[in-house]
Amino acid sequence: MVIFDGDRRVFKLDTNNTSYIMGLTDEGYLGNIYYGKKIDTTDVVYTMRTEEHPFTPENLPGEKIGFMDRFPMEYPFNGTGDFRVNCISIKDSAGQEGLELLYKSHNIYAEKRKLVGMPCARGESSMSLDIVMSDEAVGVEVVLTYTVYEECDIITQSVLIKNISEKEFYITKALSACLNLENDVSDILSLHGSWARERHIQRSKINYGSYVTESLRGEPGHQDHPFIAVLSENCTKDYGDIYAMNLIYSGNFIAMVQKDQFDRVRTNIGIHPDRFNWKLEGGEAFQVPEAIIQYSHKGIGGMTRNFHDFFRSHLLSQKWVEAERPVLINNWEATYFDFDDDKLVQIASQASKLGIEMLVMDDGWFGHRNSDNSSLGDWYVNEEKINGGLKHLVDRVNSLGMKFGIWFEPEMISPDSELYKKHPEWALSFSDREPGLCRTQYMIDFSRPEVVDYVYERLYEILSSANIEYVKWDMNRPIAEVASLSLPADRQGEVLHRHVLALYDLQERLIRDFPNLLLENCSGGGARFDAGMLYYSPQIWCSDNADPIERLMIQEGTHLIYPLSTTGTHVADSPNHVNGRITPFDTRADVALTGTFGYELDVTRIPEEERDKIPAQIDKYKKYRKLIQTGDYYRLASFRENSRYDSYMVVSKDKNHAVIIYVQVVTDSNVLSKKLKLCGLDSEKKYIIDNKEYTGSVLMNVGYIMKPLKGDFKSVVIEVNSCN
């Protein structure tokens, strides 16, 4: 619900359990008044402290700067007295940077408008609010758009910046959302890592000054993540206050937490201002990405389940939310570049007998690519490898009862390629130096419309040539040397954002023209696992490291925000190809169970004992597939925290069924059995576990006894069923 109290000049946005309140001063400044548990009044304007020293500019003009530096500005601007972190900066035609955004109008309406050229949450059964702020001196109008998702306790915010003057200006900073909080938060929750160990959870203290998590890599990256949360000191997985932000964007980002001189905390999120500069002509508008914000008093777990419900209901394509995803086998770690059509059919033939449903042909099928140093951009089938052409191969695989998928890396161009020889100017590069290589490849220049159209024509031709039902879209290097030979000097700061917009355009075309195509995004593993990508693809490859022990921490961090069904999880070889760890085949499968599930190995060469287990592993996955896709996720224990074992569970919405995954990483001698307090069950219902009956109340308060498993890296999957 969204209301405006005209007498108090207060906006109030209510979800089922929270209230978000903003207020206007007499001058027209928009302040952030309250965000927290739902309240039944708008009589909270006093918390903006406009009656305290320093007085408002209207009452005491001589103290305007002091006022600006204390006021909890809803969308803070720069250059006019607020010295804290801000959200927007504009350089006018005179080269001056300074704004004063004042209230102009507002509009409350049903549902929401789709953002042009950008992914955003859908607005079914929601209410939205536009607040128009303006600075007439600069000639800028800023439209703050809020949409309330009551059942998820989520609010989204986006910003549209308009040039309402006849003169051009430059946007040098345009963030998506800001929260001003006091006294009730002390910790920061963020996600960090590197290649093969993405999204590890980090909890740290809020101190004076600024905390920053960011990416300047042209994508969110393996190292940081477009998410930030601040929480109370006593916040656990089950209770306590937490405020979170997640950005629906797939490029450079910044998220900041700042504690000021008055012990107040400001946190914001949006496009990173470094390497960003957008020229806006008179009459033009710039759309800022949408941010997701939420408050939960039910701890970190409450935040997680709010995010999961929101993504499933309002961001992911509804076609795929409950659809049965195929169990696939990918040939990358099985063959790398050393394959031909007969080898792929050999793998498919064996896999089909075991119940695997799709073969995915990974890198190496195009141009003259037999290693990673050539042919990107030459999206033509290498018929020396794929004898008879792509359709012939796909038909052979389909005849075995298997679907077929294919790998692309459309954002790249190799110096050793026919495309680069013809169009060297299509690579991003500075005009006065040789461009730098990464993985022996360049970034293709997506700020050129002709390049984007060319790439899509090649993708379209390949996908139209055969019965291809899945695409793995990869991106294996960061974007450096950010310069386009096609743009003028004053638009070079637009290159990175133009790349992201082109990426969205390409994937939008792809799912429009091939509506039954299952798209899975990937970026060197999990470098672009973000909400923007999930708008187009219902699943993303979680990490290039499929070692089940490393995956415990990677998947814990990923599932902190994103639904289990979005996580690409495979059973891979042992020893693991990334870290060399040797783990049981059953454990690899049990950890991969809470995701999309598939295999990343040569099924024709693994030991017969392991091969014989695959049908039962697939049956187990299919048994729990719907529960994992739609149920509520609860963290029971964290290997990241205890260094010994890991456990989590998924509970059906009706609380009649659940599954527990338990992984014993380290065997302890002479210890008691573990007592796991289960979560999410109905305290009044009775449940059966291993043929023994318990009440939900007992399982959640007293606990379930988990006996020690025999050996390191062992796992067990436990079924919980209501008997009411």
Give an overview of the whole structure.
By secondary structure, the protein is of the alpha+beta class. Among the domains are: 2-315, Distorted Sandwich (Beta-galactosidase, Chain A, domain 5), CATH 2.70.98.60; 637-722, Immunoglobulin-like (Sandwich), CATH 2.60.40. The chain is built from 16 helices and 38 strands. The strands form 7 sheets. The chain has a 9-stranded antiparallel β-sheet. It has a 9-stranded parallel β-sheet with strand order 28-27-26-25-22-21-20-30-29. A hairpin with a 4-residue loop joins strand 7 (127-135) and strand 8. The longest helix is centred in the C-terminal third of the chain and has 19 residues, at 495-513.
Range of strand content:
25-35%
Total E-strand runs: 38
What structural category do the secondary elements indicate? alpha+beta
The total count of helices amounts to 16
Average pLDDT across residues? Answer: 96
In one word, what is the shape?
Answer: globular
CATH topology of the domain at 2-315: Beta-galactosidase, Chain A, domain 5
CATH class of the domain at 2-315: Mainly Beta
CATH-level-4 superfamily name of the domain at 2-315: alpha-galactosidase from lactobacil brevis
Search tags:
single chain, 724 residues, alpha+beta, Beta-galactosidase, Chain A, domain 5, Immunoglobulin-like, 16 helices, globular
Please outline the helices and strands:
Layout: E1 2-5, E2 10-14, E3 18-24, E4 30-37, H1 64-68, E5 88-91, E6 102-110, E7 127-135, E8 140-149, E9 154-163, E10 169-182, E11 187-192, E12 200-205, E13 209-215, E14 227-231, E15 242-247, E16 253-259, E17 264-271, E18 278-280, E19 285-296, H2 299-315, H3 318-321, E20 328-330, H4 332-335, H5 341-354, E21 358-361, H6 390-398, E22 403-408, E23 412-413, H7 418-422, E24 442-443, H8 449-464, E25 470-473, H9 495-513, E26 518-521, H10 531-534, E27 539-541, H11 548-559, E28 567-568, E29 571-572, H12 585-592, E30 598-600, H13 608-611, H14 614-630, E31 632-637, H15 639-642, E32 645-651, E33 657-664, E34 674-676, E35 686-689, E36 692-695, H16 696-701, E37 704-706, E38 714-722
Parallel strand pairs: 20-21, 20-30, 21-22, 22-25, 25-26, 26-27, 27-28, 29-30
Antiparallel strand pairs: 1-2, 2-3, 3-4, 5-10, 6-7, 7-8, 8-9, 9-19, 10-17, 10-18, 11-12, 11-14, 13-16, 14-15, 15-19, 16-17, 23-24, 31-32, 32-33, 33-38, 34-37, 35-36, 35-38
